[in-house]
Amino acid sequence: MGALCQAFGQAISIVDSRPARAWRDLNLDYRIQAQAERLKEWFATLNVRRVRLIGNSMGGTIAAHLAATMPHLVASLVLIDAAGFEASPSWLQQHMSQTGLNPMHEIRSADDYRAMMSIGMEAPPYIPGIML
Q1: What is the pLDDT of residues 46-104, one digit of tens each?
Q2: Residue 123: left (phi > 0), alpha (psi -120 to 50), or beta?
């Protein structure tokens, strides 16, 4: 990293959009807007006035949201396999709001596992019943 910093004459930071305990912290707001706000606050804490963002997957969506809402902060933006924007709550968000359960994380039975696989994969692989 030191060589990159010297080559570009700027500091380089790598940010993971979820804290280490995030998968267990159900009270943490994971909406794109909330994560972009946390990133903006982090930049402010470091007294960073302009950034060059590279976002991958969900990080790309967060970076794009930050660039759209805070254009004075973002000098340049690179998106790699960025996830889509939220125009309205997804069916998964609606399901979680109505039931309080996330079918991608709340796996308590073979049926729950099959449901999770069908949500996360276009064509789930065959898994013998004995393994479930």
Answers
A1: 888 888 888 888 888 889 999 999 999 999 999 888 876 666 777 888 888 898 888 88
A2: beta
Which whole-number Å values give the CA distances from 9 to 1, 12, 82, in the listed order? 12, 10, 27
Using alpha carbons only, what angle is made at residue 28 by residues 25 and 29, rounded to the nearest 5 degrees? 145
Asked which of 72, 87, 102 is the last residue of a domain, the reply is 87
Q: What is the pTM of this model?
A: 0.55
36 and 13 belong to one structural domain? yes
C-alpha 130/C-alpha 94 separation (Å) is 33
